[in-house]
Specification:
The structure is a single chain. Helix content is about 15%, strand content about 30%. The protein contains seven helices and 27 strands. The strands form six sheets. Strands 1-2-24-20-23-19-18-17-16 form a nine-stranded mixed β-sheet, with no helix packed on it. A hairpin with a 6-residue loop joins strand 11 and strand 12. The radius of gyration is 22 Å and the shape is globular. Bound molecules: 2-acetamido-2-deoxy-beta-D-glucopyranose (7 copies) and fe (ii) ion. The site of one 2-acetamido-2-deoxy-beta-D-glucopyranose has 3 residues, from loops.
């Protein structure tokens, strides 16, 4: 299994060049630009009749099942699904692995319209008071066709709780998207939940934002998202803002289909919120909502950062869609306005890692900050800063827009590693001080770990964890 992980389908000799060959990596002052090219094919959407989009058989069978964290600490889970024939039941029957005692939670059902599309019956049900570290089964579709799934409740929040996150962005629904998800599932590093960095279905790439593609996407990701929580961030492709067809409510399909526990972090909108999970405090920001001084998101984030207690959750992680530090030509500097507003807070709070998507390539930064510039002092170049986060762009899920394979040259000094390939990442938090981070480039079945490093906690162990700078 481990062997497969590293060698996959690549011939060994070729791999050797990949690892050791000096032609493969252009070393520049900035870091590594990996010129690996897997293939030049364009990413094609999987056709509607694909296996991954199949509807479960049976009258009114629940479909598009997905779960996410349902409260502050992980003792609750939001279960969401769609039924197509009739509203049916919004009740979830659930039981813990070591008990035959069947419990019930009641949810709600709703529908929405988008241009000439009418959604199926969308159900959301929150299950509360679960036991930490426990496997539960849950059953949907009471009354007609039932389907049973399971999830594992995370450990109780605490400073030395090991936990592994998978990280995926800009997924879409192409053959490459399917490879990313499959590679994540086949990774011997077992992600326990997914940090999703925005741009889910890319339904907006279809005429009139064909919302049937939101349904196919829900069916596609079910094989993972029904069994482990996906933590949602929104991206530009989730806006579905289309005044030309009378659709002026931003994020309408997303907000109807994906619920998040925003109220438990005193947020007033589902687009920005926070959760605690195991030893991590995760803050989700919205690149496409107002964030200037005095806006709701700004005010919320200021308060939020003061609430973080590193004795309880040593790891402070931020998710957003548009990256701040990214040297690709695509979307260059789109995250700049938010960076100017929020970066001082991140450095002051010693954020460990910022994950972003949006750019369809992979990039990892050194620990840098750029916060002393004040218009007149000329100090507008990022500097190495041990209190700053590592910025990781992982918008390489494999959507229909293809790869962003044109980087700015030369590679800026803040950029440690960049490569235009599809893939996913994993973050293995070991304890209060150490986490092992890796990026896995897609292969046909198994991924290849093409970038990795030990990250040291900024609060408890603020040592140099760069693998390149001196
Ligand atoms: C929606 O409108 C488009 C364009 O007029 C059409 O192609 C499509 O079939 C319509 N869909 C439905 C569900 O009516
Ligand atoms: C589905 O379940 C409802 C409620 O139990 C019942 O009234 C209805 O007849 C069922 N439909 C079918 C086709 O079995
Ligand atoms: C998607 O990936 C899964 C698992 O890797 C595979 O079983 C399935 O056939 C793939 N479907 C398509 C359309 O590529
Ligand atoms: C921070 O968390 C620790 C460990 O859970 C706890 O003992 C301490 O009281 C908390 N501090 C504050 C200010 O809440
Ligand atoms: C890469 O981007 C630069 C700057 O926008 C542009 O001049 C160049 O043509 C692009 N190269 C490719 C191969 O797209
Ligand atoms: C934390 O984990 C790292 C990596 O596994 C290990 O080297 C270190 O000793 C651990 N620290 C403690 C206090 O256990
Ligand atoms: C940081 O660590 C790297 C590798 O471990 C080393 O090459 C570099 O010199 C260190 N930089 C500083 C500023 O200590
Ligand atoms: Fe995007």
């Amino acid at each position: 299994m481990l062997g497969m992980r590293f060698y996959g389908h690549f011939p060994l000799a070729f791999l050797w060049i990949l690892i050791a060959g000096s032609e493969t990596f252009l070393l520049s002052k900035g870091g590594i630009t990996s010129t690996f090219i897997r293939n030049e094919e364009k990413s094609l959407d999987m056709p509607l009749e694909s296996d991954v989009f199949r509807v479960s058989s049976g009258y009114n069978a629940p479909q598009q099942v997905h779960i996410t964290q349902g409260d502050r600490t992980g003792k609750a889970v939001i279960v969401s699904w769609v039924t197509e024939d009739e509203p049916g039941s919004s009740t979830v029957v659930y039981w813990s692995e070591d008990s035959s005692n069947k419990l019930e939670a009641r949810g709600k059902v709703s529908t929405y319209k988008y241009y000439n599309y009418t959604s199926g019956y969308i159900h959301h049900c929150t299950i509360h008071n679960l036991e930490f570290n426990t496997k539960y089964y849950y059953k949907l579709g009471i009354g007609n066709t039932t389907r049973t799934f399971w999830f594992i409740v995370p450990p109780k929040v605490g400073p030395n709780v090991p936990y592994t996150f998978g990280i995926i962005g800009d997924l879409g629904q192409t053959y490459d998207s399917n490879r990313t998800l499959g590679n994540y599932e086949m990774n011997p590093v077992k992600g326990q939940s997914v940090l999703f960095l925005g741009d889910l279905s890319y339904a907006d790439e279809y005429p009139f934002h064909d919302n049937l593609r939101w349904d196919t996407w829900g069916r596609f990701i079910e094989r993972s998202a029904a069994y482990q929580p996906w933590i949602w961030t929104t991206g530009n492709h989730d806006l579905d803002y289309a005044p030309e067809i009378g659709e002026t409510k931003p994020f309408k399909p997303f907000l109807n289909r994906y619920h998040v526990p925003f109220k438990s972090s005193k947020s007033t909108k589902p687009l920005w919120y926070s959760i605690k999970r195991a030893s991590a405090y995760i803050i989700i920001l919205s690149s496409y909502s107002a964030y200037g001084r005095s806006t709701p998101q700004y005010k919320w984030l200021r308060k939020e950062l003061r609430k973080v207690n590193r004795s309880e959750t040593p790891w402070l992680i931020v998710l957003m869609h548009a990256p701040w530090y990214n040297s690709n030509i695509a979307h260059y500097m789109e995250g700049e306005t938010m960076r100017v507003v929020f970066e001082p807070f991140f450095v002051q709070s010693k954020v460990d890692i910022v994950f972003a998507g949006h750019v369809h390539a992979y990039e990892r930064s050194e620990r840098v900050s750029n916060i002393v510039y004040n218009i007149v002092n000329g100090k507008c170049t990022p500097v190495y800063d041990q209190s700053a986060p590592v910025y990781i762009t992982i918008g390489d899920g494999g959507n229909v827009q293809g790869l962003a394979d044109n980087f700015t040259e030369p590679q800026p000094a803040y950029s440690a590693f960049r490569e235009a390939s599809f893939g996913h990442a994993t973050l293995e938090i070991m304890n209060q001080t150490h986490a092992f981070y890796a990026w896995h480039r897609n292969g046909d079945i198994y991924s290849f770990q093409a970038d990795s490093l030990w990250l040291y906690n900024r609060y408890w162990y603020p040592m140099n964890d760069s693998t390149t700078i001196n």
